[in-house]
Amino acid sequence: MVHLILAFPLIFAVAASETMVCSKFGYNWAAEIRCLRALLSQCKRSSNNREIVDVARIIANLTEHFENKLRKLKDVMQLEQQEKITALQARFENEFKISEMKAERKFSDFKRKHESELKKLIKRLDLATSRTSHYNDKEYIFVQDRKSWYEAEEDCLSWGGHLTSISDEHENLFVRGLLRADSTWIGVNDVQVENIFVNSDQTPVAYKNFKEGEPDNASHNENCVAMEASGEWVDAFCLVTKPYICKR
């Protein structure tokens, strides 16, 4: 045990200057242990030296040294752990936002699709339950909802017919009696060929009752025909919304 408390002058000088021995290796614990073992061997070889090293101070210095390293190590580990937690939290929040956005997009698409289908179904029910009028062997309905000529034709198709065609003066008078608006779409149009009028069911127009000065194709874009309250016809821009009459 005497060897453990004896050291040669170099060790005494190190202790006196309060320099921490074997502290230059950072966190290389193996190198630090080898240094301490070498120091112990030097102490044993210098047992004849009468100078007594302040072992308590060396031990205190070493204890403080290791405690400082331990605290630093704990701080580093806590910092790394916190950084990992923060990164994980950020990743989770980002993935959650992406999932939330995808879910909202799918819900919006689902809602939009089914709302459109619901509107079509409601429209079909409205048409199916509309009051019908009969002329010869045909059914007619007047629809107050304002639609473009193309939309009106689609609604009539869903009802099982077309925008009304008019074959003669008597049918024109009958259709006029169905009107509850000043201007109403009928099936006559020259969408495909200018001044070549056909019905929306692609049958030729056998009878015409255009108002004086009509059709005038104003601005070169009036290709659909509407009946006015007088029973006379005018050509109009097809995207203008009007009530309409279906026939089947």
From TrEMBL:
Keywords: Disulfide bond, Signal. Pfam families: Lectin_C. It comes from the Eukaryota. Residues 1-17 form the signal peptide. InterPro entries: C-type_lectin-like (IPR001304), C-type_lectin-like/link_sf (IPR016186), C-type_lectin/snaclec_domain (IPR050111), C-type_lectin_CS (IPR018378), CTDL_fold (IPR016187). Gene3D superfamilies: Mannose-Binding Protein A, subunit A. Residues 135-247 form the C-type lectin domain. PANTHER family: MANNOSE, PHOSPHOLIPASE, LECTIN RECEPTOR RELATED. This is Lectin C-type domain protein.
